[in-house]
Amino acid sequence: MNDRADDRDVLIVTDPQVDFCPGGALAVPHGDEIVPAANRLARRFAHVIITQDWHPPGHTSFASAHPGRAPFEAIQLDYGEQTLWPDHCVQGAPGAAFHPGLGIPHAELIIRKGYHRTIDSYSAFRENNRRTPTGLAGYLRERGFERVTICGLATDYCVFFSAIDAREAGFETVVDLAASRAIDLDGSLARALAAMREAGVELHP
Predict the structure, then answer these.
(1) What is the CATH number of the domain that holds 153?
(2) Is residue 72 a part of any domain in this protein?
(3) What is the three-class DSSP state of 90?
(4) Amino acid 4: pLDDT
(5) Roughly what angle, to the nearest 10 degrees, separates helices 188-198 and 160-168?
(6) Other Cβ atoms within 10 Å of 190 Cβ, number
(7) Is 1 among the domain residues?
(8) Which is the catalytic residue, given 151, 158, 165, 176?
(9) Which domain holds residue 48?
């Protein structure tokens, strides 16, 4: 990866939110460590986008919305398998806010995702039904970006799905692992890294 990005490059910082950091409702181990790393990385980019998980109360991905079910169980929804999560990143709640240490004032766009009550959303590009777009791919094309670098939370979920979709949309794609942390649920990190390599994503240590 070049030391300095140019005007065809954009950085996407994925879900640097309170609920995904230690003490949050769905804490990623060492999730807060991505904040200073993302701040440093963002200084190399003139163009930065931040994603924000933004669920309505009672979202279908919440275990609490399915009586008798527990967090981290999997169920089948009409779009396929869905992991059930603790209630997290509820619209307007303190846990949905960006980490207070995040310092990327020049970010140009915030993409909110997961706000459809019946569809979860990991990717910055489309919802988990794989049909509902966020509009990000069109935005990037209209702005003339050709290469995306992705970091944030979590490596094996939102970073992973965003990277796969970025490649499928035709963008050169880099994942900065130093500014990302994983949940690693039942080997999900190893599977995500292998799938990203196979898709042509450059993994930067």
Answers:
(1) 3.40.50.850
(2) no
(3) strand
(4) 67
(5) 20
(6) 11
(7) no
(8) 158
(9) 9-56+88-204
Does the bond joining 163 to the residue before it have cis omega, within 30 degrees of 0? no
**In whole angstroms, what is the distance from residue 57 CA to residue 172 CA?**
36
Kindly state whether residue 82 falls inside one of the protein's structural domains.
no
Catalytic residue among 15, 19, 120, 165: 15
Longest dimension (CA), the chain: 51
Instruction: Please say if 158 is a catalytic residue.
Output: yes
The answer to whether 136 and 169 have CB atoms below 8 angstroms apart is no
pTM: 0.95
113 has catalytic annotation: yes
The active-site residue out of 87, 89, 113, 151 is 113
Q: What is the C-alpha separation between 75 and 179, in angstroms, rounded? A: 31
The strands making up 202-204's β-sheet, listed across from edge to edge, are 109-113, 48-53, 9-14, 147-153, 172-181, 202-204
- CA-CA distance, 27 to 17, in Å (whole number)? 10
Tens digit of each residue's pLDDT, the chain (205 residues): 446 678 899 999 999 999 999 999 999 999 999 999 999 999 999 999 999 999 999 999 999 999 999 999 999 999 999 999 999 999 999 999 999 999 999 999 999 999 999 999 999 999 999 999 999 999 999 999 999 999 999 999 999 999 999 999 999 999 999 999 999 988 999 999 999 999 999 999 8
- Determine the Cα–Cα distance for residues 38 and 54; give it in Å rounded to an integer: 20
Q: How many CB atoms lie within 10 A of CB 186?
A: 10
Number of domains the chain is built from: 1
**Is the residue at 102 inside a domain?**
yes
